[in-house]
Design goal:
- This protein is mainly β.
- The chain contains no helices and 20 strands.
- It folds into two domains: 158 residues; 72 residues, Macroglobulin (MG2) domain (Immunoglobulin-like, Sandwich), CATH 2.60.40.
- The strands form four sheets. Strands 2, 3, 6, 10, 11, 12 and 13 form a seven-stranded mixed beta sheet that branches.
- The protein is globular, with a radius of gyration of 19 Å.
Length: 264
């Protein structure tokens, strides 16, 4: 395993700039035994040239940069609905608690500053003075198998449409297994979902068209844990779904809306 550094890595994936076109989509830095296949994946609209873009590594111990610059290159391919991904291998990414990344554009502006295993305040480099946003999931030598990674899951075309998953089977250079790119955000007119968090096993969904809803709820592992149909504003009973964070997908008349759903 990698030695501990005195510096820290500020993983910038969670504090995203509004209106950005690319984002960090998948990362891998730790697994059982010797680390294998470490790197960072970038997602965005097809045709964007990443020449001049960088990922800078930050050390959580002191907020400073560590290691060499990860220089990005290549044109994002059209893998799914005019969006795609590119994977960039990088050895010796630190194991966190915390560490992180800053995604920097070709003008030196920070697009994202995310961290894993905690929060970081950068003291130098392009993210100096910025506070990272913790992505909320980690990899460890004890629990992460070889061939797994941390990934965004859900449906959409912007970073904020997705949720970070615990380690699942890696998909370097491809859209993630439980990720759909892109979906029209809140395409269902007048869509509302309440209460959220769900505290009594009952969920209500409404829309302007007052039609029948097809509902699917997915865990952070990408497993469908609930599937049903319900009429407008009828209570949906979900008593057997354990407490946790989920993604809910609702379809009405061939239109789709997705939301993060918390069950207490």
């Amino acid at each position: 395993m990698k030695k501990n550094y005195l510096f820290w890595v500020a993983f910038t994936v969670t504090s995203i700039c509004f209106g950005q076109t690319i984002f960090i989509n998948e990362i891998h830095y730790d697994n059982t035994g010797g680390d294998v296949g470490e790197g960072v994946e970038i997602c965005g609209p097809a045709g964007i040239d990443l020449a001049g873009y960088q990922v800078r590594l930050y050390n959580g111990s002191n907020g400073g940069l560590y290691d060499t610059i990860l220089n990005l290159s290549g044109i994002i391919p059209n893998q799914q609905n005019n969006m795609g991904t590119l994977w960039f291998p990088k050895e010796e990414i630190q194991n966190g608690n915390p560490d992180g990344f800053a995604l920097v554009d070709n003008s030196g502006n920070v697009i994202q500053f995310l961290s894993y295993g905690g929060i970081i305040t950068a003291i130098d480099g392009p993210a100096a003075g910025m506070i990272s946003e913790n992505i909320g999931v980690v990899e460890t030598e004890a629990t992460t198998p070889v061939g797994y990674s941390l990934q965004l899951i859900g449906s959409g075309s912007e970073y904020t449409d997705f949720t970070w998953s615990v380690p699942i089977v890696a998909t370097p250079g491809l859209p993630n297994t439980t990720q759909t790119l892109p979906v029209v955000k809140n395409e269902i007119e007048g869509f509302t979902l309440y209460p959220n968090p769900v505290s009594n096993g009952k969920l209500f969904i409404t829309s302007r068209n007052k039609s029948i809803f097809k509902i699917e709820i997915y865990s952070m592992f990408g497993k469908c844990v609930y599937k049903n149909e319900t009429n407008y504003n009828n209570p949906m009973n979900i008593p057997n779904v354990p407490a946790g964070i989920y993604m809910i997908r609702v379809e009405e008349d061939n239109k789709i809306a997705t939301r993060k759903l918390i069950i207490e």
